[in-house]
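--- STAGE predict ---
source: upstream dedup step, 1 unique chain passed
mode: sequence only
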Amino acid sequence: MSIVSPKLFGVQVWDYAGDKPAAPVYRDRGVPSANDPEVIWICRFGVQGNTKPEALRKINLIAREEARAMGFPCVIIRKEPHEQQYERTTGGQETTIVNKATGQIRRTVIPADLHLTIAMGNGLSKGQIHGHIYLERDPTDFGAVATNVRKIPDPRMRKYVPPGKEPVASEYWLVKGVQAIALDKTLVRGR
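--- STAGE serialize ---
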């Protein structure tokens, strides 16, 4: 499946850490094409390719195979394998906690199935969908960050599936938090 939006001139994936476009920290070059997608890391874990090349290779392979199956020439790894997610209401709104001493507002973090957070599209400046690939950790992998992983073979193995939802091995949404330039060159900021 390939998603093409004729109304968008370009789309930029945004950084989690701030209100700015994401920058690549590591690239595993494919052609790039739908048959050999390029993998771009925008989180710090990608820098560890020198110290954990086998982990990087396995994660890149999972991401590349997913992009190939979806028909995208580029996959952007936004967050290495992790087991937390931001809590949302049934309507999709983020929940928050207020620190009464400082007044600081933070998003509520809850446990999640091990997953890789990615975006896919035609390149770093043209992300079109984002989502999660759910993973299974090798039982001999005791590291703080799971690096000996594979795509979950059976979605029914998942523990944290929202009520009323069917367990899936991967799931995707249209990119939110993007900067889009319309064909008439006007700036459109997504939500």
